[in-house]
Every structure is written in structure tokens, then in C-alpha cells.
């Protein structure tokens, strides 16, 4: 607790008093826990503190008579209930979050004076909220969509919010177009459909008329839009920001989050099924990982462009529809973020957290990206109606660990009780406190970068923002063949859902043909449209033809198969020793092994022992696991061969290119299923087979199997 001070004895924050140390940083991590620990051993009371004797019956005139208005206990309870909901976010309504910390790898003072990036000993608490964009609060986690990746750093110098996405560009270049874009992508106004997806007329109408969206749309049609896990996504700050060091030297930067779990996705068929089989797949995956100690980790990196190099690229750094290819400017890692604590209460934390790109600290500043500039206004504005007024910074999850003394007062839901008479500045009654802190090299007051602006007031888009296709082309050309096929299929699926043929044609002829003619032709063929012969605009030749950093096939991560779910399919007659061997072998790689049976009841091993299962194959269908193995035991294999549920499980896992292994006697089961061994479909449960399985799982899926899997029914 801060020591109590009289007004006169208070010192300026700049003088170092009130500066939070590690102890109160840790207190932030605990603070929400304190707020909730009132349930055990406590009497049930009203909000006014009155003990409640009967929580089962309303006060009535006779046991069969009408209810009485004077029942303040029932009225308080129902009134509170009637107002339990707050408006969901206009976009990014569906989300989940976690607490954790950020730690710098070293002293990055050459880049920034932001304290949390200077001291490798410093633990900065963070809260992260991941989200989809289109769907409402109750929509599916695995829909094709962009994912929000918003991080609140509770730094000693104030909160820094890095409110990014899992894709490095955006659909539009200017904030004034955001309501148009959102109205187009959201469920259509006349029928409130579709929930959670962009496969509908208004979205494609808009993007086919707005070529600046081409780059982001191809990302949204790629595998990045169907992540396997929130733990397996990159994050991007999208806009160019500035970092400023103690000497006042500014560098342009793009922020990146690199996951140690690698970047991995599910297949489209899988994503759709998951949305039904487990609507909560991503939030469950994150929660379970943290609960089981598999703390997800990301490295925070920056691409740094010195001020002098601002104009040296083929594109404008201020254009949010452009990346800086990593081959041109590599990512320098600054530190790591670890998520290690689940929220205690979803509403209090995940729902009430309020991010704003305008929450920055000394050493960080904005660029003039016109999309970022608009966001600086929008986020606080939206909290006013969502969280009910301007005091949302007092909600526990939003409170900074840094002190926040000022003369702002009152307004709805004010929590702080301000003492004293002087709520203005200058004042002499209160010794002039709280006082400004002059800007300084370190610990100074916030100072905006002294950028020289000499311009006319205009409503214009810079000419340097006019190329909309070269980076979309770079993206497509940087994909593996497999990824390209997925992109073609995604456009074909989505446009196939568009009812108006002229919208389909416009997207193919005026957008896709300018990205790549083969892409346009393939999509056109799937839609039964003629293939375009040429694009409609002259696309500038981009010097860089391939950017390997864009293909997630090149982003396997650093932790192997840690935390991956491997199912062992068991039935009566399974060889217990084989189950033990496999479990130990996979657990040695820190994978999670799950025993799945024909039902939730235990199975009997070949030597008569009871074996508990984690779930039934119906309760945990194949779309929820990363790989599977059928342990030894002839009778168990026969039972699986006679079970429609098991056969479907195996065929579906095969179709979704999952690594699979079967004990030697599994040959018969494979014949029944009409499947052949391949690089990731292995027979035998010896060490060699297990190691091959692990090697394939590290690559996520058996990509070579895709053609063979086409023949398997979905
Ligand atoms: Fe947002 N955005 N956005 N956005 N955005 C919101 O803020 C907005 C943009 C992003 O988990 C809203 O608190 C405008 C880009 C995330 O709570 C709203 C523009 C990027 C989240 C809003 C953009 C984002 C939001 C809705 C164009 C990636 C979820 C509720 C100028 C860099 C944050 C809220 C969370 C949420 C406005 C564009 C990411 C309405 C006006 C670009 C991750 O204020």
C-alpha cells in the first residue's frame, strides 16, 4: 500500500515517489483475485448488506396469493438481473483473454526510452484479448475471419495497448471507410445472416468495389484465417509506429508477435465442423493450455526503419495495406510475452477490458497512418457507450499500475473518492499538486515527436497509396502450392455463396485478375465463369518476388509438439502395455495424450484390467485432436473395425491430413478403411514409428497426402 501523505509532503511523480516498483506490479497480477474472494463462509446478503433468510420464495399475500411490491429483496435481485448485459463490441465481440507478463531481452535504449523495454529484470504484467471480427459474442471460434490480438502492457509509466491483428495489413486505408467496411462484412441488415463469416453478398460487393482491400482479402482467404489455436498465430501491430529514444531520435517500427508454438491452421472442412462440434474450441484450447502449464509464448519483435529511410521503399510506410517484407527489413526481437493465468471472471476481465491504440507511453509514438489516426479517436469513444461513461479506466482490468493523479472528476460510476478542494490547476490551495512533469530523457512527461508538418488542409489520398495489387501478388507467389490451393478454394467457396453473379464477376475480373491470372482462372472455373485474359490495371513490378517469411510452412515454431493433442483410440481388448509405452513416448515430447473409447465408460485391457478413458470418440471427435494412434490389441482393433464411430474418426483424421499410427495388427483395419500407409500413416508402435510420427506432427499435417485424401468423403 502507498504510504499516506499530506498534500504538502507530496512529491512530484517526476521526483520518483509514487513510481511503482516490482512489488506493486505483482500486486496488479493479484488484484483481481482480491476482489472476488468473498464467496466462501459468507452469509448471503442484499447489495445493501442485509442478511437474506429466504432466497427461494417471493413475499406473497398468502402462500397462493399475489406477490407484494414491498419485497425489496426480490426486486433488487431481479432489477440487477434485468441489467446484466452490456452492449457487445461492435466488432471483435467474440473473444477470450489471458493474463501474463512481458520481459525484455535486454536494454533497447538505443531504440526507445520506454522503461519496460530497457530492463531485462523487469516483469511487466500484460492482459491479452484474442477475438474474431465479424461474429457476435456467441458465435463460433473457428470461422474464417481475421483474429484480433490486443495486448495491454501495465507498464510503470502507464498502460501501453498494442491493439493488433493476426494479419499484418488491413482492408482499408482511411478510417472514414471503417463504418462502410464493417456494415458490409457484418451479418446483412435484413436477415441478420451470416453469423461469423464473410461469405455473403454485401462483403464481396464492398471489397470488389474497393481494390485497396485486395491484399487483406487474400490474407483472409488464406490459412491464416482458420488458425489451429490462438497460441499458433502471429500478431501484428499493422500500422507503422515510432519508437523514440532518450536523445529524441525516432525510428519507424512495425510490431510483430512470433509464437513459439509456430503458425498453424486447420483445414477448411475441419474449421466448419469444429464450429458445430465445439463452438468454444479456441477459448477452450487457450484455457486448457494455461491450466496444464503449457504457457503460450510469443516474442515481441520490431522491424526498424530509420527516419532517413522513410521513402526508400516501393510502398508508403503509412499505408496500412502494405507490409514491409521481412527479407527487406528483418524482425529484431525485443523480448517475450508469456501467458500464464486464466481470467477468474470472464465478464469482469475479458468483457470489460478496454483497449485503445491511443494508450501509449513515453518512447512510443504514432505515425500519420490515416487508419491509425482514426482509431485513436474511435476506441475511447466506443467505451463510453459500451462501458457506460468515461470512468472505465477505474474498472480493475483497465487500471494502470502507474499512479494516475489528475483533476478529472465525477461522471457516472466514479469509484475514486478524491479528498481536498482543488480539482484544478494551477492551484495554490493544494500546493499546486498534481504537477506537470517536464519532458526528459528518462521518467519525463509524455512528449509527442516533434514532427515538422507543412501542408495544406485537404481531403486526399496520397498518390503513394495507389498500388493495391503488387503486395497481394507477392503474398500469393510466396505461398507453397498447398497454401495456394487453399486460397483458390476459399475464394471459390465464399464467392459461391454470393447470390449476385455480377459481384462474383467483378471480384474475379477486377481484383483477382490483377493479383494473378492463374488464381483468377482457377476461381473462375470453380464458379463457371470465363477466365479473364488480362488484369484491368497496370500493377507495378515489385522488386521482391518471393517472401518466404509469409508462408506459414516456414514458421514451425521452436517447441516441437509441446501441448499438441494425441488421441489413443482404445476399445476392449487393448494391450495395456502398448498404451503405456505410447503415452510415455508422446509425453516425453510434452504432448498431451488422451485416451478415447467407444463410449465414456472404461475399457477392459487384454489382461483384464480397467482402463479409464478421457472421453468418447463422439465427445471428442477427430477435429479436436492433432494426431492419433491405435495401440496394440487384436480384439480392440476388431472392435474398432466394426464401429461406425471409430471408422468415421479414422477416415476423418486421414482426410484432415493428421498424423496417424496403428500397431502392426492395424493392417487389417487399414484395409477395411481402404487407406494406404504414407509418410504420416504409420504401422507398428516401435520407437522408430513413434519418432517418425513426431517428426510429421512437427510439420503439423501430412501435406503430401492431400491428393489421396480428396477421395475420402467429408
Ligand atoms: Fe479496431 N475497433 N478499428 N482495428 N479493433 C475495435 O473497439 C476501429 C482496426 C482491433 O479485444 C472497437 O473496444 C476503427 C485495425 C482489435 O477489445 C472499435 C478502425 C486493427 C479490437 C474499433 C479499426 C484493429 C478492435 C470495437 C479503423 C488491427 C478488439 C470495440 C480506423 C491493427 C479489441 C472496441 C478488444 C476493436 C474501431 C481498425 C484491431 C469500434 C474505427 C486496423 C484487436 O472502437
UniProtKB/TrEMBL annotation:
Please give a single GO biological process term from the UniProt record. hydrogen peroxide catabolic process
Q: Give the E.C. number(s).
A: 1.11.1.6
**Ranges of compositional bias, category Basic and acidic residues:** 1-13
Q: Which residues form the active site?
A: 92, 165
EC top class, as a word: oxidoreductase
Tell me the residue numbers annotated for binding heme: 89, 129, 178, 375, 379, 386
What keywords tag this UniProt record?
A: Heme, Hydrogen peroxide, Iron, Metal-binding, Oxidoreductase, Peroxidase
Similarity remark: Belongs to the catalase family. HPII subfamily.
Q: What name appears for this protein in its UniProt entry?
A: Catalase
